[in-house]
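Support case: user asked for a sample of complex input and structure output to validate their parser. Sending the pair below.
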Amino acid sequence: MSASTFLGLPALGDTQLAEQHPDVAILGIPFGVPYPSPGHTAGCADGPAAIRARSRRLANFADHHDFDLDAPMLVGSPPLRVVDAGDVDGAPDDGPGNATRAESAVRSMLSAGVVPIVLGGDDSIPIPVLRAYSGSERFTVLQVDAHLDFRDEVAGVRDGYSSTMRRAAEMDHVGRIVQVGLRGVGSARTSDVVDARAAGNLLITARELRTRGVNWLLGQLPRGGPVFIVFDLDGLDPSVAPAVSGISPGGLAYDEAGDLLGGVAERCRVVGAAFTELVPALDANDVSALVVVRMVMRLLAGVDRNR
Amino acid sequence: MSASTFLGLPALGDTQLAEQHPDVAILGIPFGVPYPSPGHTAGCADGPAAIRARSRRLANFADHHDFDLDAPMLVGSPPLRVVDAGDVDGAPDDGPGNATRAESAVRSMLSAGVVPIVLGGDDSIPIPVLRAYSGSERFTVLQVDAHLDFRDEVAGVRDGYSSTMRRAAEMDHVGRIVQVGLRGVGSARTSDVVDARAAGNLLITARELRTRGVNWLLGQLPRGGPVFIVFDLDGLDPSVAPAVSGISPGGLAYDEAGDLLGGVAERCRVVGAAFTELVPALDANDVSALVVVRMVMRLLAGVDRNR
Amino acid sequence: MSASTFLGLPALGDTQLAEQHPDVAILGIPFGVPYPSPGHTAGCADGPAAIRARSRRLANFADHHDFDLDAPMLVGSPPLRVVDAGDVDGAPDDGPGNATRAESAVRSMLSAGVVPIVLGGDDSIPIPVLRAYSGSERFTVLQVDAHLDFRDEVAGVRDGYSSTMRRAAEMDHVGRIVQVGLRGVGSARTSDVVDARAAGNLLITARELRTRGVNWLLGQLPRGGPVFIVFDLDGLDPSVAPAVSGISPGGLAYDEAGDLLGGVAERCRVVGAAFTELVPALDANDVSALVVVRMVMRLLAGVDRNR
Amino acid sequence: MSASTFLGLPALGDTQLAEQHPDVAILGIPFGVPYPSPGHTAGCADGPAAIRARSRRLANFADHHDFDLDAPMLVGSPPLRVVDAGDVDGAPDDGPGNATRAESAVRSMLSAGVVPIVLGGDDSIPIPVLRAYSGSERFTVLQVDAHLDFRDEVAGVRDGYSSTMRRAAEMDHVGRIVQVGLRGVGSARTSDVVDARAAGNLLITARELRTRGVNWLLGQLPRGGPVFIVFDLDGLDPSVAPAVSGISPGGLAYDEAGDLLGGVAERCRVVGAAFTELVPALDANDVSALVVVRMVMRLLAGVDRNR
Amino acid sequence: MSASTFLGLPALGDTQLAEQHPDVAILGIPFGVPYPSPGHTAGCADGPAAIRARSRRLANFADHHDFDLDAPMLVGSPPLRVVDAGDVDGAPDDGPGNATRAESAVRSMLSAGVVPIVLGGDDSIPIPVLRAYSGSERFTVLQVDAHLDFRDEVAGVRDGYSSTMRRAAEMDHVGRIVQVGLRGVGSARTSDVVDARAAGNLLITARELRTRGVNWLLGQLPRGGPVFIVFDLDGLDPSVAPAVSGISPGGLAYDEAGDLLGGVAERCRVVGAAFTELVPALDANDVSALVVVRMVMRLLAGVDRNR
Amino acid sequence: MSASTFLGLPALGDTQLAEQHPDVAILGIPFGVPYPSPGHTAGCADGPAAIRARSRRLANFADHHDFDLDAPMLVGSPPLRVVDAGDVDGAPDDGPGNATRAESAVRSMLSAGVVPIVLGGDDSIPIPVLRAYSGSERFTVLQVDAHLDFRDEVAGVRDGYSSTMRRAAEMDHVGRIVQVGLRGVGSARTSDVVDARAAGNLLITARELRTRGVNWLLGQLPRGGPVFIVFDLDGLDPSVAPAVSGISPGGLAYDEAGDLLGGVAERCRVVGAAFTELVPALDANDVSALVVVRMVMRLLAGVDRNR
């Protein structure tokens, strides 16, 4: 019998991390940090479960031919060892504790030499995840998102989803931040844009990506260098991934996003990733959850080929 | 030309309250108080707009024959004066300020002798609304809800939607609390149920209401006495009002809810009401928004007949 | 960290069954036996994953007050030990092997004294599940379903979902079969109805249940005697559980089904259960999956109180 | 090969009516009469096609056991001959011509001794259909509808869907009109209600039907006498049939409607029927279309047993 | 407190127009002119309310950074004064009166020097709107639409949505008509296409726009000259704006439409605009309403920069 | 009166084929061949009915101007004679018989010189359809599909939808197979890809088509030569046609598919076509069904121009 893991991957118990030291581990973090007045971005707590549920349909196909790669997902030898580490324990009434547990879970993985692929949760999740890397080498952060997330605080909350990239920019181990998919209006004021640019961030709108192409963007990233990926699902166009709260027309196409993730994983060195902001209750025929599954598969294929 | 008001009612400007002193005013409060980790109950901020939007289709019928009353909605003379006071100004980043403004807006209405009918917003909204009544006569609170909302605090938050009825119970001007529609599981622990009963609250499950009937419940309320109604939409069955986050099968039927609201308004004296927890993004053919519209119409009809 | 189990229950590995011998185990069987021409009843393979995914939202509430019980779900001492045993391994291209593995998995549980609660999968799943009981004491089968499922064969297929109850009737260890929820038209011909009655089955339409009441039906079941429950989700009304292929208006109400499951578990002795026919792609706001979760909770509560 | 007919019934060509003189014929009339300003009740033009499409899934079951009848749909000997006569030819730009063709098509059927079962189209369709009966014996009209449809005219339009019952009341061959399912507000003013009652119509709200029961209502209809049925789908509750424009909570239950149609057909003499107001684009899992199919099946079963 | 206006803009009372003379006013016209037989294009009456409701979520962001502009929406000084003038009063039973009131409302605005941005309503709405400009300077009409709308009459109706561009072509104050987005089949016969071309209209299919680009099209419009925009939402692709009746695959992309509106407003002189054919009941996650909101924002930004 | 045929085309009775010998006939084959364990691809049995139902809305427009052709659909003289031959009779319990009847129906058409356009049904349907061509001239097969369908067998089933192209490749009368739209993962293993290439198949991913263009692909097909088209709806992108089970992001755009079908029909000689895998229950606003209707119209237009 098999547990309900991502793509039917082996489940990894808490105590098995050090002894098994897999290459990559899927980790669910089904929560986040809200603001003092309800906005529209909750409902993400069901994200990891919905992504795993949708991935079950592809479990039998995981070693079949992937036409996007013209090969199976994993071809390396010895095989890339990928596991599902389950969800970080969380409680709706313990935000700080949740963040601490999330940071701790990622830190354990890093100690064991495991690359974490996080399934959120809202887009504040990358803050504790990135904090777990403190003391590590410096890495680039590649963010796919419709929004800048560079507010210093909102209503006194400093670790909310509108501040993710500003918090990241403040961390010693975070180098350049590349932000792609920007469009429309959101929480960012023009002063925040000025600040982000002053911090050295590279801002690329969804339209610029369409004009310049994914390969141009890949060229902006350090070949062979370490990169952490923050993938907010609303970076994609609503016709690709409708199940998000911060819905914004004019987003990335499916191929653009897949090429970007696959390309980063092949050309740079992915040290971790977080996929955030899926709201399953808004999905149609589970297509948004499927898109996340496929993005993770592209990422795994790239990591596999880059060993 | 007419503004986009509830049922096409006259819009009331801020300064017109004292001079016009209408009998009843619709007031949108499109926010609430979330918890430190995202749950599933946000998305209510679109509630007032969706309710007003759906009510527009009935605007031309508002003085037609209402078969649920065998008469038009309003029959009294002079006519009941009902207005739409718009929305309380709010900002996603200012929870405390939002609560203060909500309380202040309601207090102004009460000073002018206006009965407020509040459209939420999440189910923490009744806390500031009820606070605005401080100093008034004591009144009964009738809550329609699947949940008890009697936690003392959740994650240090004391004014969240899981504490609404406990906060109400602590107010001097709140008398007995009658809670109807309870079922399934939620944030309430058995100790909270014990506390609620110890506080004198009357707890009635959805099933008990079906067994005993609405008239029995009306008999528990003070004839001619003041009552404030808290109507959390998840008190209704999902087949009646699917667009809620805290969805719970086995809820109140449409007629039960309508008879309850109409009956309270006719037999007691409604001093205010709040309709909460509509999540428009989850609605189907706008039927949940329509149900709220009809509930408000039943309430207005009862108030009209009770003068 | 916790695996993505039903209600956050402990995950049970293959080898842990004998040593831990829990009281009850959840077991996913995400497949079934189709007919030689596509009908409309597939899409159930996603069922177990969707049910587990929806149950995650209730995981924090599982020991809270359940108003349908006026107590928490589990109150017995020592606590009822319930685990999630994951999914039976299956492959889309190995129907016979799947059935063998399903039967074997259930048989292992029975040998270890564990009561299996199966999440399907289509409504042919109960056939291998019931076969695993061969050699056991005789028990009653209680089927909730809109359909009779008493065809001897369809297109030469004898173990398909239209033959489930006929296959059950042929097993030595199956005693009386009680079939409730029947209505409308389906694969059953009048001759099949004659056969079912001749076999001693008690047939109760959804309307008869409404007239006679759940307590009457419970009186037809052996007090203290062993009962296996087959719960085809289309036994419920479409307004309660829309996500089924064999949709049929006029079905059981939510309370009727909950009272029936809870009542059987408290008054008889449940030796196993199978919940079948959820098609997640047809669900709305995941309400059908939630209904299955709640039915399982009612069943667990009854088992807990019946020790 | 078989045409795409209702339930797979034989298709009847224009010229075959007189020679074959079937007992009953299904007839699609996919249009209606709108008002000079767009309301919300269009989209019905797809109705007949959607009803036929959904009925195809039941075609193989049409002679199986119907548990609502405890027998197959048709049991009489010789067999009731039912055919599908296709759709009346219509053009979106020829309202008067459409009405004339509809009336003419029905008149041809009546001349051939065929009972027409009409699939609409909006609820103005019964006007030309009923006109086709001029010169026939007097019959009762049983209307199932949330609305009164008794306006003399709306914006100068006299044959629109808000005037259907008033037009019927003016026809010499129409006797008493029984209107059931009334609730909420609509186009009817209180003066229209007064007029309807003055015309001798029996008005029964949805709630009165629930209180008094279907059998009481059947007792109001002439035993053995001729009855024409106008079934506006919005007479049903939205949880039963969501796909209507004039949606109104609190409507008839599925069993109430089925018993009413089956009962009328068995006890009275059905001279024709029209099912109107299905808007397929608003349907969910095609359940509303299925409900219409089942209503027609109940009607056919009653007609079959009443020969 | 604030009224439920578009983007939270100030509400403008009837009498304030002349004294305040804002630059631009939003005006809802929630009706239209149907044909004598129901087609499929109704349901638009809810359009203005749905657009305003969706815009509320962006109200707090309206002065934030718009990445599509790399600046906030409004940057001019003194600030562009934009107000919401509410809805034209209409009645479902008074088509001619509605048209008269619509024309009169627009005429009042024009007299006060206000540019009207109309939210429909069906696509016949531009006829009375354009009539209000009689006596003004001649202007170009830019129509975005899948359909030609150049029938002389349909069923005797001359002011319906299939005749909008022909009626416009007949007006003295209308100069060249540029029609973009054409594709598929609709009410237009080849003779209508011949007529439109003979009238000097420039017809551009959706595919031609993709090939030639938006800048080419902008070059066809008079630099600095007056232009009225008719934006039928079905001009967009269904994946961008699913909530239309006249749905037609292969339509304009989101960026094409946004660039077109923004470009026209910046390069020409927009004298008015009408957005039509949104059917909220068909929307998914309100994305179509959001697209309209964003189109209006692009238009306002262009007007602001073009002063 | 007219039957519910595709686009309102004349219905063709069984006996009329030889005497009328139309040029093209629409033929519904609403079934297929499933695997021994339920996958996710059923629900297609409603396909032909849903496609016909959606086509009814275009029936009045079928001879209007088609802007994708800049002319009406049919312009040839004498007119192309297209009929609707209804559905092949099938039974859910007779897979082999269904296949035999499907093959026989197509064979009769071919004998009468009629080009069949088949509406499925699942993607195993082309196997019996192609078998009906045995003895005919050799032709190219053009498959549009996300999947390779080149498994030799799955679970012992050789004629299932994962083997369609392998079965085709084995037929003497099938020449080269061109497979376009491939992407993602499915049932195909890398060995199957090797086999398909070894068999001489031309494999083109969806991305290659975007890069090389439709005209390049048309150049790979034999000018003037015979071609049979297998159009699996999941070849299209989910944003174009969401109603499929084997949903796969990154698929063909609407224009690519339309140009391909129209181009093949104009440049080659279409000897038949099959459209498969529509699952109506998963559709949104019937847009997927509409896309199939439009694809058939493009095909008919090409055939018409190629005489």
